[in-house]
Amino acid sequence: xxxxxxxxxxxxxxxxxxxxxxxxxxxxxxxxxxxxxxxxxxxxxxxxxxxxxxxxxxxxxxxxxxxxxxxxxxxxxxxxxxxxxxxxxxxxxxxxxxxxxxxxxxxxxxxxxxxxxxxxxxxxxxxxxxxxxxxxxxxxxxxxxxxxxxxxxxxxxxxxxxxxxxxxxxxxxxxxxxxxxxxxxxxxxxxxxxxxxxxxxxxxxxxxxxxxxxxxxxxxxxxxxxxxxxxxxxxxxxxxxxxxxxxxxxxxxxxxxxxxxxxxxxxxxxxxxxxxxxxxxxxxxxxxxxxxxxxxxxxxxxxxxxxxxxxxxxxxxxxxxxxxxxxxxxxxxxxxxxxxxxxxxxxxxxxxxxxxxxxxxxxxxxxxxxxxxxxxxxxxxxxxxxxxxxxxxxxxxxxxxxxxxxxxxxxxxxxxxxxxxxxxxxxxxxxxxxxxxxxxxxxxxxxxxxxxxx
Amino acid sequence: xxxxxxxxxxxxxxxxxxxxxxxxxxxxxxxxxxxxxxxxxxxxxxxxxxxxxxxxxxxxxxxxxxxxxxxxxxxxxxxxxxxxxxxxxxxxxxxxxxxxxxxxxxxxxxxxxxxxxxxxxxxxxxxxxxxxxxxxxxxxxxxxxxxxxxxxxxxxxxxxxxxxxxxxxxxxxxxxxxxxxxxxxxxxxxxxxxxxxxxxxxxxxxxxxxxxxxxxxxxxxxxxxxxxxxxxxxxxxxxxxxxxxxxxxxxxxxxxxxxxxxxxxxxxxxxxxxxxxxxxxxxxxxxxxxxxxxxxxxxxxxxxxxxxxxxxxxxxxxxxxxxxxxxxxxxxxxxxxxxxxxxxxxxxxxxxxxxxxxxxxxxxxxxxxxxxxxxxxxxxxxxxxxxxxxxxxxxxxxxxxxxxxxxxxxxxxxxxxxxxxxxxxxxxxxxxxxxxxxxxxxxxxxxxxxxxxxxxxxxxxxxxxxxxxxxxxxxxxxxxxxxxxxxxxxxxxxxxxxxxxxxxxxxxxxxxxxxxxxxxxxxxxxxxxxxxxxxxxxxxxxxxxxxxxxxxxxxxxxxxxxxxxxx
Lengths: 454, 567
Description:
Chain A is α/β, with parallel strands linked by helices. Chain A is 31% helix and 24% strand.
């Protein structure tokens, strides 16, 4: 159920990580939320009766392991800042489930939506995926089944897409600036999920220069109708703020008012901040607007200093372009059942994909082979054989096994066997096991022959 | 010799302190209609037989402003806001206000101009309402005073004889609605407070007391009376501040403890952590208004010795001999305890029955507990125990809540989150009339030591007598703009060194604090100031550093005069 119509406060965690940066001049630096702090503190938003401020907590390593295969282990891929950012989302999830709040916004950094299932390092400013960690937590701890993640960042939410690629119960819908023109270069309409979950991943690439009008067209004509049909237990917003017309890393023309209105209409249960790097000209206003919209406050007084209504006009060509994309995605969504049926008929017992993943921040190249059993009795166990290189040397390699929730006994047995077979196999450095059904996680080091578990 | 007088809710307490000894105490009942009179009555009683020439300092803590606000006796004020973009001002519970165009941003840049004609219209509107006190507050005005100054100037010209308070002179901390409320309260109380200060000065002169007179602020610091007229709201809640300073004076330095002040109808709770009283994070709540007044975090719980005890016997099984009805203690007071001539049962009656206090009439207390016992279906003794358990439960619950709230206070840096420890009370210090019998019970439940100091009933007056001045200075530096500003008084100036280091910023803060201390007549304490917060942000535009934003907070924290060398 979405938050619309519920009463109660809006929970807010503000964790600007004022003592953490990727590097001193990197966009993901200490200063990023400084002016946002000034604005929301000066507005006195935390004092309003509609808003309740929470203190962040650290996510546990187990919370991370539920969403990721961190190689060689969780501790070597995260800093305290990452655990606090991820933990903030969990604190709000608890508050939401306890009924203390009706919705919540984790205004935190570092961001996460480019982090994929396997983590060898930082890509797209992200180490671990706060949103995916939140989703897995909501499902494990509170038993939610269907969750919708709407990624409103200007960049394709490729990490979140990867983590839920095979999961028919998590709808991942991302709209973003066209991958031909922006990092990470993916998120095209034809990326629509694994064979068992086709059309549960949906991508809406938009032309550079898309305005409020264009994004609201997508929202009104595509996202909201799909949500109505999908009927998720919870709607989550990966709330990047870099569609803004002043963002230095992207080329869209979305306004603070447009963002506020989007959150009002979408009515997400929880919002998690992703990117957004116009630290002075956008973030203070966009964040104020989102908080107000979530809290049911009047956001019509939020306005960037240089914004005048009607400043950006959508050209007819752009409108046609967006309408065409929306129609394509609608079509995919409507055919979701046939698409899945056809795919499963064509494939045998296993689905395989090989791919390369580039970690731009850490300059790592990863090769992966992912295999999922197309099991008639459960979601099927998965294995990933991964090897990462930096420069000319092998960085790390691992064999990862994942047992899904409600796994059948045959998948469970086969997955265990796969794990056992790779233990002490010198061709891979580490063997990882993710048992989502039992909420147990193992890391085996083939060099030291030691096992750790969470 | 030092004199401390606390004009409290029920009594006015006064002490004379010489070195580390309490020489004399005096009490008179507080007369809310004439605070000055009871203050002077207490003073006269106190100085009888004392050489007034030997008095070095007089410190007052008074409920004057607290009462004025609580009773709605403040002067009417026109509130003029320059909110700029952001929250709709109607979403703030500030009452009626006049909204002006114009805006300043977080860096102090003008992003929207004032409209002079609009300001003149505002002046006409204020004149039409017959108001002569105006509070002018702009969002981010602390980063650039131009708009507030201009509006103030036009209003002063258009409204001769009116008093205009500007937001940036009242507080420069981030929080526009709190600043607006604080400025409004300043304008609403400044005249009455000034009259009071003058009367006090005159009365002391008549009594040939020439020692400097100070007022106690909500943060436990003293300020010369003549300087305090600029900031009347700072004197709010000086009563609880006096009690907490008293506990600081009467316990070992550096202790962590809970201060429990049990009165007739309310119990005030406060925390002292490693010898430092905990301040409320963003400022005091005054009635329905949230302000930026620096104040100790005091939690008022509606329970005390005179709280009314009510029983309902619903669901009670008469066959069992134990207490089984439901009991409510407080939150209201019906009158004095039955054992002291009142009409209904109270916790004081219960204490009397249990032999934990000797005040009041034993037979009447027994009668009070009989009433409770009937409702509960048990003996009077059991009833008394149940009542006291309920009182202790409530106080213990609220103490634990206070610790929890302190632990849950938001933090914005990794180190703040990583270092925050879980604290619990080592000792419970009781002050106030109801403290001696109840504090040991509260402490036992918390597994802490109970301390009821020797001078507990006049701890407040002692606190006032031996408190030292406090002062806070928040310095904000923007090296790209070449500017600094001081939050507390709106002082602005230039910085020329683009490569300023945090050490340079701290040096500047120390110099500015010394100047401000001298201006406020507490210059000799400037050397006590410590840096309590410091942050530096590099401003990166493109991929290069264009400047630094630095913030330094320096304070003379609440503390005791060195002459008070107790413990």
